[in-house]
From TrEMBL, chain A:
One of its GO terms (cellular component) is checkpoint clamp complex. This is DNA repair protein rad9. Belongs to the rad9 family. Residues 386-400 have a biased composition (Acidic residues). Residues 326-349, 407-418 have a biased composition (Polar residues). Acts in DNA repair and mutagenesis. Involved in promoting resistance to ionizing radiation and UV light, as well as regulating cell cycle progression after irradiation.
From TrEMBL, chain B:
Keywords: DNA damage, DNA repair, Nucleus. It comes from Achaetomium macrosporum. The keyword Nucleus applies. Residues 83-93 have a biased composition (Acidic residues). Belongs to the rad1 family. Residues 72-82 have a biased composition (Polar residues). It is found in: Nucleus. This is Rad1/Rec1/Rad17.
Length: 458, 343
């Protein structure tokens, strides 16, 4: 049965294409999530440091939109698709050219349908009708995969400003190529907001490799008067650093909507949110900001050393914890999710292949962009409480809405309210107990037993 | 070969063209092989390119593309003394035929305009304002645009001699001698005009648009279906890793200029070989699609050349054998099962 069916006008196709093109700068695939009232496209970049979400309002953006829940997908349907193939479908076609009007090859309308069910091919079918009478229909296979949403705590983000996206885009023109980081900060008197671009890419020079120079020793600062902003509330002397590449990609898209771009953020090392909306489309971006200390000191730590540390640890730890884990196995065969296990053994389960990276389901994980995750990693290995049993029912609920959250324990600012968790990590696990299901699994689980926790795609 | 007399015989073929652009355009449309067969006739040159005996592209340089065009086609015995016993053939002159390297010929025809480009470069250097912004644009008064790009004379003295091209342009003369090869004389792909299943004439651009729609999934096969009822003409791509696509042509709205279908015709071709005709689709104004009872597809393109009548490009394609379709369906079924597992 047809789960989702919507029609786009020519302009709608163009808007959708712009959104996809913007997402393509972050990731290769996109999660589509359809509900009664809106269609959401989300993506997360590979380092999980940036999250993009476009919401299209069902009644405003589409010429026609219908979502019919099935027993399987009651209130929402989700799937994952390649952005590249969507881009070619929703691209703009050249109009008639020098030919007469009746030979117009531009898009008349575009019907998209997702037809799924038993005995049916699971395909997204896009039918593009052209004004000249040609109809192209494309059917794309998709993967049923629940989307990952990044969490952003609005209450925590005290700093905010909003500015016309065009103005901001013009400012970015001043920043040269090859730069990596953008520091948004305020001066002492808080009369201007500085946008400072710089890079820390170091180039080795000469045969003596310890002589390093900055590859692009260009430091650009654009000071913007507070008056330029519509609504500004920024802490004094706060430096917030984000990736220029991500910021550029956002502005590239934002300038097309010509609306005001709103940002809110709290402290370095905590996510920053940028959003703007236009004509039934809400665009939200959550970017991880670079922790101040990371940016200055650890960013260019030799990655090989990190890898070596990571590789060595599991062996070491799994030996030391073997006895306890075996014992646990014997005792708790019946209740596999309620045992205390050690971190390194978790690492061996197929569920979590990328320990060092930012994790999706077991929530408290190292942060994405910064190299600091390693120190955190070691600390947590000693923290058994972290892997306490969790409520499996809660997980059932959570299963389809994997939420992405950047690590709270990574608070770099000791003055913040989370000082307690920063100093003693034992206190921290109570903050978000229901999210931690997967981490409570025995290392020696059979795959079939683990499967019911929804760790694999259903 | 011995010359026939003391005086050198006039060359078999000699022609002068003032512009190589149409010549180049037409040949580029069949640029999918290394060697091309040339037949010299009274009315023009015929270039036949062949790909693995499943695709054939023929381009004509009609007489009207040249300012002078002379042929001296030898009669049967002079061309081939061994066929003397074939008395009927003696009267009919056999057109001289040989093979030539197509990329080399195309390269040669492009030499034209080289002096122009150099002049433009010099101008660009002198005028910094137009330095890197505009030098890709051709000047409105360049020789190239005005079609006065010098002269190009082609000649073929006699069998076994190189095909010689002399380009004269603003005092610079370039002579290129292209080696000719013994013809393989492959037969044309048989196409039975008496047994047409369908004939559709449409704008070549629509066909190109349709292929552009299908190409992104990098398909392996293209199925062309023509039928009396809807969908009248449908192109379907399959076998690509990113899904499948199809394009339907509506009968109305002047999309299909001529549409006659005798019986439903469905054939599958390799996508890439149809795609190699896309250059022809780009330059042509109209295309005539025909399919015969055996499944061979013929595409005839009409190319409007400035200053002379229309030229025609002729393509023929051999379809996949029908039994392969079953294998493809099996694959599709497997794909479906895989998708259901995931849900």
């Amino acid at each position: 049965m047809v789960i989702l069916n919507f029609t786009l006008s020519e302009e709608g196709v163009a808007v959708l294409h712009d959104a996809l093109a913007c997402m393509f700068k972050f990731s290769d695939d996109v999660c589509l999530e359809a509900r009664m009232d809106k269609l959401t496209l989300t993506t997360l970049n590979i380092s999980k440091s940036a999250y993009v979400c476009f919401s299209f309002a069902a009644n405003r953006f589409f010429s026609r939109y219908s979502f019919e829940g099935t027993p399987q997908y009651r209130d929402r349907f989700f799937c994952q698709l390649y952005i590249r193939s969507l881009l070619t479908i929703f691209r703009a076609r050249q109009a008639g050219g020098d030919q007469a009007r009746d030979r117009d090859a531009s898009i008349d309308r575009c019907d998209v349908a997702i037809d799924d069910g038993l005995g049916k091919k699971s395909r997204l079918v896009a039918r593009v009708s052209f004004r000249n009478g040609i109809t192209a229909s494309h059917s794309l296979p998709y993967e049923v995969k629940p989307p990952t949403h990044a969490k952003f705590n609005r209450d925590e983000a005290g700093n905010r400003w909003s500015i016309s996206s065009r103005t901001l885009r013009q400012l970015m023109d001043h920043f040269g190529p090859g730069i990596e980081l953008l520091d948004i900060n305020t001066d002492e008197e808080a009369r201007v907001v500085n946008f400072t671009c710089f890079t820390e890419k170091v180039q080795k020079r000469g045969a003596v490799s310890n002589e390093a120079v900055l590859k692009k020793p260009l430091h650009t600062n654009v000071a913007v008067e507070m008056d330029e902003f519509d609504d500004v509330e920024v802490q004094d002397k706060l430096h917030i650093i984000i990736s220029v590449k991500d910021f550029r990609a956002i502005l590239q898209h934002a300038q097309m909507t010509s609306g005001a771009l709103t940002t809110s953020y709290s402290n370095p090392g905590r996510p920053m949110k940028l959003s703007y909306s236009a004509d039934g489309v809400l665009c939200e971006f959550i970017l991880m900001t670079v922790g101040e200390k990371d940016a200055m000191t650890q960013k260019h730590k030799n990655p090989r050393a990190n890898n070596a540390a990571k590789a060595a640890r599991p062996e070491l730890d799994s030996e030391s914890h073997r006895a306890s884990s075996v014992a646990a196995n014997e005792n708790q065969q019946e209740a596999p999710a309620s045992t205390t296990t050690s971190r390194p053994q978790q690492q061996e389960t197929p569920v979590r292949p990328r320990q060092s990276a930012f994790e999706i389901r077991p929530q408290p994980m190292p942060p994405p962009t910064t190299a600091r995750s390693d120190s955190l990693f070691v600390d947590q290995a000693e923290d058994d409480e972290q892997w306490e049993p969790i409520n499996p029912d809660a997980d059932e609920e959570e299963e389809e809405t994997a939420r992405l959250e950047w690590n709270i324990t990574n608070e770099p600012n000791p003055s913040s309210i989370r000082i307690g968790s920063y100093l003693s990590r034992q206190a921290e696990p109570q903050d978000v107990p229901p999210d931690r299901l997967a981490s409570g699994l025995e290392p020696t689980q059979r795959l079939s037993e683990v499967r019911r926790f929804g760790l694999f795609s259903p | 070969m011995e010359p026939e007399g003391s005086a050198p015989a006039p060359p078999i073929f000699r022609a002068v063209a003032s512009s190589t652009r149409p010549l180049y355009q037409l040949l580029k449309a069949i640029n999918f092989t290394n060697k091309v067969h040339i037949d010299i006739t009274e009315n023009g040159l015929r270039f036949a390119a062949d790909h693995a005996r499943v695709m054939q592209g023929v381009a004509h340089w009609s007489k009207s593309l040249f300012t002078t065009y002379t042929t001296n086609i030898p009669s049967g015995p002079a061309q081939d003394s061994t066929s003397a016993e074939d008395s009927e053939k003696e009267d009919e002159p056999l057109p001289p035929t040989f093979q030539i390297s197509l990329p080399a010929l195309l390269e040669t025809l492009q030499i034209f305009g080289a002096a122009d480009a150099a002049a433009r470069q010099a101008k660009a250097d002198a005028d910094p304002y137009r330095s890197n912004l505009r030098n890709y644009r051709s000047d409105a008064f360049s020789n190239h645009t005005l079609g006065m790009s010098g002269t190009c004379s082609l000649s073929y003295a006699q069998e076994g001699e190189p095909f010689s091209i002399v380009l004269d342009e603003s005092g610079v003369s370039t002579t290129c001698n292209l080696t000719t090869y013994v013809p393989e004389t492959p037969d044309d792909i048989p196409f039975d005009i008496e047994d047409l299943s369908f004939k559709i004439i449409t704008s070549a651009r629509w066909l190109l648009d349709a292929l552009t729609e299908l190409a992104p999934t990098s398909p392996e096969k293209l199925t062309i279906a023509a039928s009396k009822r809807e969908p009248y003409l449908r192109l379907t791509s399959s076998g690509g890793p990113l899904g499948s696509s199809s394009v339907d042509f509506d009968k109305g709205r002047d999309l299909l200029e001529t549409f006659s279908v005798r019986q439903r015709w469905v054939q599958t071709f390799k996508f890439d070989i149809i795609k190699s005709a896309s250059e022809a689709m780009r330059i042509a104004s109209k295309v005539s699609l025909r399919g015969d009872g055996q499944g061979v597809l013929s595409m005839q393109f009409m190319v409007e050349v400035e200053g002379s009548g229309p030229s025609f490009l002729d393509f023929r394609f051999v379809p996949y054998a029908v039994c392969e379709d079953e294998g493809e369906e099996d694959e599709e079924d497997e794909g479906e099962e895989g998708a259901e597992m995931e849900t």
